[in-house]
Design brief:
single chain, alpha/beta, Cytidine Deaminase, domain 2, 6-stranded mixed beta sheet, two-stranded parallel sheet, 3 helices, about 35% strand, binds zinc ion
Length: about 140
């Protein structure tokens, strides 16, 4: 694990931003694979929540395929991302309650005409901001 936070390469930030913008006003979600603390691939996952404007639930089959692909390539799960199209880049109480993985949670939200992303660790029911490094 990268002690300085999570490292995101420009192409992966661009891919996530395009995905969250495309899905708005529905929440978008996906997985970021990594190696040595840096992103190597983004997997957009369909949001199958009953009310995708308010929640996200990853399509289980697509999620399973992404995990299997990461395993096959020797990658780790680096981060889980989703968007708050009508909110802030801060985890909701539901996000904290449902955080199931000890990885970085990236949350995207619109600010003006662009989208910003923030990183958090949510294990143990606590919200801890995590620095994002860019490349
Ligand atoms: Zn959320």
């Amino acid at each position: 694990m990268n002690p300085h936070g999570v490292g995101l390469r420009r192409e992966h930030v661009t891919a996530m931003r395009a995905h969250v913008a495309r899905e708005a006003p529905r929440e978008a979600c996906g997985l970021v694979a990594g190696r040595d603390g840096w992103s190597v691939h983004v997997y957009p996952i369909p949001n199958v929540a009953a009310h995708p404007e308010q929640r996200y639930r990853m399509d289980p089959t697509a999620q399973w395929r992404a995990f299997r692909d990461m395993d096959a390539r020797g990658w780790d799960l680096l981060a889980i991302y989703h968007s708050h199209p009508c909110g802030y880049p801060y985890p909701s109480s539901i996000d904290v309650a449902e955080a199931a993985y000890p990885v970085v949670y990236l949350i995207w939200a619109p600010v003006g005409s662009t989208w910003v992303v923030r990183g958090y660790r949510l294990d143990g029911g606590r919200v801890r901001p995590v620095p994002i490094r860019w490349e």
